[in-house]
Design goal:
Elements lengths: L2 E5 L3 H13 L3 E2 L6 H11 L3 E5 L8 H11 L3 E6 L4 H7 L6 E4 L4 H29 L3 E6 L5 E4 L1 H7 L3 H4 L13 H6 L11 E3 L3 E6 L5 E13 L2 E10 L1 H35 L7 H5 L1
Parallel strand pairs: 1-2, 1-3, 3-4, 4-5
Antiparallel strand pairs: 6-7, 6-11, 8-10, 9-10, 10-11
Helix pairs in contact: 2-3, 5-9
C-alpha cells in the first residue's frame, strides 16, 4: 500500500489530517511538524505522496522543501495552504504539485485531492516502467534448419529460456512451447512453405512458451524463411511479453480507477454548487415545484 506523509507546522492540523486519511483507509506515516523530521522520514520510508504546508515557520518554505524532495525521491506533492496569493501559487507551480488543499479543509476535498494525486503517481510510475521495458527489450534470436531443428541459440535466447547452447541446439524448436501451443506455432510456418526470392516473413503470432525450470510465459514470435545456396533456414525472434502484459493489465485497472475518481469529483463539485448557490444551476421555480 502506498505511503503518505503529512508535514504541517501546526501540530493540530497535521494530526487532524493524519486521522482523517487513516479513516479513509490510507497508509499514513506519523505526521511531522518540521522539514528536518520530514526529510528524515522521506529518506527512510520513501513515501509516494506528501501533503506539505506551503508556508513553514522556519527559514525553508514548503516550496523550497518540495524542490529538495524532488531531488531525493519520485513522489507526488499536495500543498496545504491558507493563502490564495497569485505569486505564491505561481512559485508553487515550479514543483508541479498534484493538487492544493485550502485551510480550513473539507473532508471530501481532501479525499478527492489525495485520490487524484495517487492516480498521477501511479501513472508516472507506470510510464517509467514502460520506458525501462523498451530500453531493456530483449529478443531471443534463433536459427533453425529446414526440419525446424535449432542450429543457433544466442545469449538472449539462453537467458530467456534458461537453456545453454549445448542443451538446446540440435533439438526441435517446438520443445520451447507448451504442448497445447505447439500446433499453433507449427501452423505459423505454413505461410512460408512457398518462397519467391531469397526470403519471406510470416505474420507475427502470440503464444506461450516454457523455460528450463518449467515457468510458462507469454511470447511474441517473428519468423522469416531464407533460401541460401538451395538450403532453407529460418531466423526466429522471440520476445518475452510477461512485463508488457502486466503493464497492459495495470493500465486497464488504472483506467477503471480513473473513472471512479472522476465520478467522485463530479459528485463533490455538484454538491458544492448546490450547497453554495443553487440558483447558479436551476431557476427558483425548479425547487418550488
Amino acid at each position: 500500500m502506498k505511503k503518505i506523509l503529512i508535514l504541517d507546522d501546526e501540530a493540530i492540523i497535521a494530526m487532524q489530517l493524519e486521522e482523517l486519511l487513516k479513516g479513509f483507509g490510507y497508509n499514513v506515516l506519523p505526521a511531522v511538524c518540521s522539514s528536518k523530521e520530514a526529510l528524515r522520514l522521506i529518506k527512510t520510508e520513501s513515501p509516494q505522496l506528501i501533503l506539505l504546508d506551503i508556508k513553514l515557520k522556519e527559514k525553508m518554505t514548503g516550496i523550497d522543501l518540495a524542490k529538495k524532495i524532488r531531488h531525493l525521491i519520485n513522489c507526488e506533492i499536495i500543498f496545504i495552504t491558507a493563502y490564495t496569493d497569485d505569486e505564491l501559487i505561481r512559485n508553487a507551480r515550479e514543483v508541479q504539485p498534484a493538487a492544493y488543499i485550502l485551510k480550513p479543509f473539507r473532508e471530501e476535498e481532501v479525499k478527492a485531492a489525495v485520490e487524484i494525486a495517487l492516480y498521477k503517481q501511479e501513472m508516472s510510475s507506470l510510464s517509467k516502467r514502460i520506458c525501462e521495458l523498451y530500453q531493456s527489450r530483449q529478443l531471443a534470436k534463433i536459427i533453425l534448419d529446414n526440419q525446424k531443428i535449432i542450429r543457433f541459440f544466442d545469449q538472449d535466447a539462453q537467458e530467456t529460456f534458461g537453456f545453454s547452447k549445448e542443451e538446446i541446439e540440435q533439438k526441435s524448436f517446438f520443445e520451447l512451447f507448451l504442448p497445447e501451443e505447439k500446433e499453433k506455432v507449427y501452423n505459423a510456418f505454413l505461410p512460408l512453405s512457398y518462397i519467391e526470392g531469397d526470403f519471406k516473413m510470416a505474420p507475427e503470432i502470440e503464444s506461450r512458451a516454457i523455460n528450463r525450470d518449467g515457468k510458462k510465459f507469454p511470447v511474441e514470435i517473428s519468423i522469416t524463411v531464407w533460401k541460401l545456396k538451395g538450403q532453407i533456414f529460418y531466423t526466429i525472434l522471440i520476445e518475452d511479453c510477461s512485463l508488457r502484459f502486466e503493464i497492459d493489465q495495470k493500465i486497464a485497472e488504472l483506467k477503471k480507477e480513473k473513472k471512479n475518481y472522476f465520478k467522485q469529483i463530479h459528485h463533490l463539485l455538484f454538491a458544492d454548487l448546490l450547497s453554495n448557490d443553487q440558483s447558479l444551476l436551476f431557476p427558483k421555480e425548479y425547487f418550488l415545484g
